[in-house]
User: Fold these one by one.
Assistant:
Number 1:
Amino acid sequence: MSFLLVLAPLAPLAMLFALAWPKVRATVQRLLWAAPLPALLVALLLGHVPPLVADAGGLRLTLLLDAPGALLLGGAALLWGAAGLYARAYLGDQPRFAAWWLLTQSGSLGVFIAGDLGSFYLAFAVASLAGFGLVVQDGTAAAVRAGALYLFLAVLGEIALLLGFALLATAAPGDSIAIADVVPPLATYPGGHITALLLVLGFGLKMGLVPLHVWLPVAHPAAPMPASAVLSGVIVKAGVIGLIRFLPDDGAPAGWGMALTVIGFLTAYWGVAAGLTQRNPKTVLAYSTVSQMGVVGAVLGMGIVLGIADGGLHAAFYALHHMLAKGALFLGVGVALASGRESRRWVLPLALLLALGFGGLPPTGGALAKAAVKDELGAGLAAWCAALSAFGSTLLMLHFVRRVTEAAGEGHAARPAPGLLWPWLGLGGAALLLPWALLPMVGADAGKMWSMAAIAPVLLGAALSWPWMRWADRVPALPEGDLLVLAKRGAAPREALGRAILRFEMLFRPWPAAGLSLLGVVLALIAAMAAARS
Amino acid sequence: MTATTQGGWLLVMALTLPAGAMLLAFVAGGRHARTISLAALGLWLVIAFAIAAQVQSGGAPLSYVIGGWQPPLGMALRADGLSAAMLLTGAVVLLAVALFGRTPYDTPRGAPESRAAYAFWCFVPALAASLAAAFLGGDLFNLFVALEMLTFTALALACLDGRPSQFKSELRYLLFALIGSVLYLLGTGLLYGAYGTLDIALLAGRTRADAPTMVAGALMTAGLIAKMALFPLHLWLPPAHAGAPAAASALLSGLVVKGAFVLLLRLWFWVLPAPFVLGGASVLAALGATAIVVGSVVALRQERLKLLVAYSTVAQMGYLFLMFPLLAAADAETASRAWLGGVLQAISHALAKAAMFLGAGLVAASLGHDRVNALGGAARAMPVTVIAFALGGLSLMGLPPSGGFSAKWLLLRASVETGQWWWSLVILAGGLLTGGYVYRIVAAALSAPAPGCMARPVPRAQEYCVLALAVASMLLGVLPLYAFGLVRVGAP
Amino acid sequence: MTGTDILALAACGLVAIGLYGLVAQAEVLRKIIAFNLLGAGVFLLFGVVARRGAAAGLGGDPVPQAMVITGLVVAFAATALALVLTLRLYQIAGAATVAEDPPERTASEP
């Protein structure tokens, strides 16, 4: 059975290669939705799939399926499938888009089942970098700029991870690169703090933890709807699974649980505050993703602080709900834009329901997700912080619903194409219902969601959203990617540095300078060797 | 005592076959030159493969004592893992470049032979012979001759088009390379005076840490790095590599500089005594680190595609020098990692850079210019080339699953393990800067064509040659690690 | 001071002159001549080495002399090649220099 694990990332990859063959190109594009089916099957077989270990000449590669991985893998497969159907109706025949789509998909599905440093890094890199193609699909100047920023930060994240992984591999005893072997020594390793910092940098960049969130609000609005859905739904989860795998509750160096919690809550509030000023519904959604990933970070952080063994599973459950609901909301923006005033009435209720789910409105899936993380965020200061973030999320999501309503639809009676409508309905339904079906896995108490502590933030948020509607237009919009403004200020010094290096290089271009530096090299070598001899 | 091992005749074949092919092509000329040359390169690849297989399976270096005369009087050909791997790389790149050159250096039936085509098909096998001599030679003086042969053939290939700017930059190249070779020769003279032999195997472990050895080592090293264009001795490389025709640029950047690299490794890790290696390695690595940063930043600011790729060579050569302090200061396991990382970097760079230069040549031929900012529409006109170029770029950046990634990962681990973490920062910063200039090119190629831009179609066969090289560079990272046991055979 | 020492000093002098010429002289022809001087110095050094390392009863060690012969051939070939390039450059461009081009187009200076 374990061979099935390979199929999850390989099926999209095989379809990608099939694209190069003109005869089957049309078929592949028609079947875009089917690429994640093996992954879905694998996720459903949780518990029946033993790990797959391939010994490739001294390098042991591992693929494994555990509960958090299966939750995220299954959710990702659902979202990829629905968004694939949607993309077909939304974009039509686009072989280049299909190629980037399948490549990204392959990486993003692989990352949830990778069990060693090598395959994890590979899958993570493929998912991150190929996402670039999805961002720039529209080819507008804004999309290209967003793509460049996305790629720059993705490579930066890769670099942090690469160094972090090198430190992990060095600290681990023996030659094994299995995650299960390299992570435990981290807690006691003297360089553990640097390693943890690099890991949080790399994964935080992907998740969008403040201040590394700047790519999300820029990239998501620039990408086409189905691409935004998977970027926001699946790609950011690569960071979540990374933190689950590499900073487990018993493996993180001291202090990192608290740090992660603080960063997480900071992100959660930052996302809400910045999102509330936005006009574009997709930007609002992107900021909502930032905020929700902040909550996931806080859950993981508190899991480490409190030493909760299932912290990763709880965070994965929370992330699963976010994956489905946020994917559905992004698809819903496209549906809303395609429907006229007449049919809009039928579109909005589901969007509203999904949106309020993020605040924890019972009995939606979102409320269950909040109930599932009660172990971590249920007591003390953390509970207050969580309630504040739930309140903020409600406010933000109602702001989103309002912005969608305002966004112009074409004509009065336009109806969304069934290819747009059904994937959206399916995904929305899954977001509302699937958490109920999976509840036994996390063993949360569904009754908790009816508690006053859970409902009060939603009610308060809903109440305050009326006044905010009036205020929202008077508040100046923060530029998308808020902190990016600071980066622009660095442009002039960067330019000056680049020019200085160029001038430095030009010093050595004339012939006499090169001849002198040749003699200089000889002397330097002699000096260094003489110093070593004495 | 060196003895001819089983399979030693393969080494002789690797040397004589391309040399013979060159002579034959020189005599036959015209269309025959092309046939002879291509056939010889194909056979040469088979021989290189056989040598690699023999070294890998035997786990010991091959050697052949010419004429049965023992060193120090006679001379030996040797193939350890390093030689075999580099020879194989050279054979792959040369064959791909020769296949690429079938279109531009074609002599149609009945047409008079052109000077460029004739020279190309004579000098490509000559380059193969010089490479074989440089990789297989076991004697420091023979290696000097091999390096000169390499320089001369490379020069002839670089001047094929006969443009004035070409002559100028190639003359600079020649003169600077000559300074390098004389310094190297001066060093060998001193070494011979001190030890009475130049056979590497005989010198190994026998050198003393005294003044003549020190001066000889410094002179020879300086001469070799002048030929490798390590910063600050790089003045000749960008114009020479950028000015040459595409096929020649690929060979110059991919292979010719690697000849000097192999020689440098032999000098440092076989000939020089350990204290000198320990002391001098940090100077080399510091220069290499500067080369990575400066070369990448300057590449980032180039406006011409070929110059950009050439400056990228300056930067990538820097990586090769980072292995020196890691090898010098490490325990056996880490040293083996650094060794593998460095050699892998040389191999993957050879493949990737050859692909990138060929790709740049195709782009320039199709658009009629190579201004980076005006590459719009290139991806539409020649998707295969742009994909190949991007794959090569990914390998240079060190992204998985490329050969460049494996190389950089190994170097990174070795630098962390030896506590020399500062080199790892250089490796990573270089990767980011590399990403910057690769992105510039690929993004420009993907953008919409400027109005009035006419991209002529390029031959599919040429595009596939480029793609094959790029894919080979990528596949290097997917190869299971035991395949690289080859590189460890006979490692210091 | 023996004859060998004088020869060795002469070799050093030639190497120094040659290096200076190669680095400092702007004209290509002078550079080529300087290269030949440099080469002559190195070959002289090989001669000195041959003399010093001679086995008992022999006038000189033959191996360095063989190397000098090979080296001469290489240096001759290099000189010829350099001269041909210089000549072609002169014919095409009207001047033979390897001075750095003015930094047009080579780099972006906005």
Note: The longest strand of chain B covers residues 62-65.
Number 2:
Amino acid sequence: MQASGASQTQVQSQVQALLQPHGTMQGYEPGAWFCEMLRPGQPQHPTLTLLMSRLAALPIESLRQRAAAAERDLLDRGITFTVYSDATAIDRILPFDLIPRVITPAEWQQIETGVVQRVRALNMFLYDIYHERKILADKIVPADLVLKNAGYCQAMVGFDVPFNTYVHVCGTDIVRDETGAFRVLEDNARTPSGVAYVVENRHMSLRVMSDLMTSLRVRGVDEYGLRLHNAMAEIAPPGVEDPQVVVLSPGIFNSAYFEHVFLAREMGVPLVEGRDLCVEGGKVWMRTTSGLAQVHTIYRRIGDDFLDPDAFNPDSMLGVRGLIEAWRRGAVAIANAVGTGVADDKAIYAYMPRIIQYYLSEEAILPNVDTRICAEPDALAYTLDHLHELVVKPVAESGGYGLLIGPHASKAQLAEFRALLKADPSNYISQPTLKLSVSPTLCEDGVRPRHIDLRPFAVTGRDTWVLPGGLTRVALRAGTLVVNSSQGGGSKDTWVLA
Amino acid sequence: MDMIPQRHKVHLIARHAESTLWLARYMERIENLARILDVTNTFARDADDTRNWLSIPRINGDLVAFYKKHGEATQRSVGEFYLLDSDNPTSVQSFIAAARENARTLRALIATEMWLQINVFYGRIRQLNAANITPDHFTAVCGMLKDGAQAHTGITEGTLYRDQAWHFYMIGRYLERADQTTRLLDTRFHSLAPQTDAVDADIDAGHWNALLRAAAGYHAYRREHPSGYDATEVACFLLANTAFPRSVGLNLAQIEWHLTQLRTRYFLRLPAALERLDQLNGMMTYQNVAELAGRKLSPFLDYVQREIGGLHQDIVGTFSG
């Protein structure tokens, strides 16, 4: 594949003069994809040029040795997630690609302000749909889509949360198209995971790539725990001088347990399970060696349904009986709030630009990917007509399962999805296949372009703060666009330049 | 006196305190088991090989489980049972799996180095296979296990923050040491009644030698008693000595110190444990042990073992359930 457009070719030839003759980057050819390293059509950043020349000067064997050391290190450290399929559970590492993804200050400016804007809109939307429902009355978002949404929580109606913040931790999945424009792929407003990798990947870079980082001005990511703890303290019930924060995990067998440990350590608070907590006298307590001690804020990493067998799933063994009632009475703060799932639903996502416009009278700083809601007849017709060129996603699922990538699908798969769509159109949205940007990635046959996305993390108490970095996931298999860890994706360190 | 000016009260989750105790106990068990296997392999090579190897399942109360799987006690069968068999709850495979699970539970409280070493150690133990327990590799495997357990002990000493969790950790370690020494002494004492015959005395010397080496006390004992072995002296050394790291008396004294710290610095209520310990400590004197050694040491050792178990229950019982 050849890059199109004169300016793109020009810039690439300049850079490739530097890359081609020798070293690590030999034979690297991003083709028509937007490359995060060469960034055709964008002004070159001196740090990137320096990094590229350092990378180019490195023998590929050195890169491979470092990659092997990094993999060994991840396994030894038990930085793993668990993959469950049928009856087996396997501890896997999230493969780490040691060539970083770099974000320039100007790019970060857009991402940061865009994420802050989006989180504000999400919180305002949640407040509205659990109170006056103005946006529904004004028919900006169909009422049924919200009120009949599986993520809509009746228990939240009329209930106030501190600072009207529902989404305390938000992970916004952002991709970059072939023109280099950032677009939001989805919001994760429930219990987004991955932030531990942001920090651990940085530490890994410092261990195995320190010579490449020398004197480059990369913004630090170590502040996350402190910022998160501050936000958790801010939302604690009023009048508590030194609030007790805990991280609530489903336990050591959860696939994200490593991250729960990370969060508790970074905040310096206990990592508890449901069985360590109880509700007595309307307050929430944890069982300590010296008896019950009051808990003021719970950063929970278990889903709404499992939080409280009294309020939700009565079979849940993970939760705390009476927790929701204690919360509603103001005895404890829970982050993220219950009932945020309605806001990060893929069906609501389609309306986000209009939601931002409605509450903030602003254009979305980070645009959506063009999205069609199959519940609407026109959109369904279009989707059925163009199935072979679209990505079709179920709105209720996550994790990359059960999605159709039209251009890669067989006739049988297309027919199967056509039937699924007709049977239950409101369960699906469709989007054009994305030409995701690529980043140079160490592969079997050398450094090769692989597709990436970005998940920055925003922490909100009174105000919103965005961690200057993010989880860059990379699709390690050639050609694939799916970056999910459960589908063979890996990750990269994300360098936001100062 | 509070040494650390505390900004706020740092709580320890009760379940984590229990995990800490168990982590220490399982890691200590690995070292003890490796010691006994190594010493049996090296020093107890007299005519009655089977009796020597059988002493290990006997120490651990595993005779029934052992005979269910193996016909005869040999280096091979005992090695397999204790080094490779993950179905056997008293094998190093089970110990390291349990230690790692507790460490995982405590991951937010312990240093990365501590976790990393356990995780790597786990990987190494999981990889052991039949080739590792052949006569030419047996000592090396025991050495690897001892090294791993001792590295853990060292990392813990150097990194574990000295708050409540540390006290519980140390109590777990000392409980386990006291328990293991009692078991070691109990089984050997059965077969080590005083002998008059010169040949028997030689064999005896070999056994005392092995016993002391298994407890890492051979040279210390020699220093204290250069003249030879005496059943009463050995019993006193292992039970009442206050300088030997694996003597029951010293370990009980250390447990008492840690319990007192928990009571005075963290205001934990541990009346049952302290009372039981007080009684037990009172019996661990040279005079008392010397008196018992000739006649009824075995029932006494059974009693001590039960009390050590009771102590663990007392401590855990104060904050769970």
Note: The domain at 238-331 of chain A is CATH 3.40.50.11290 (Rossmann fold).
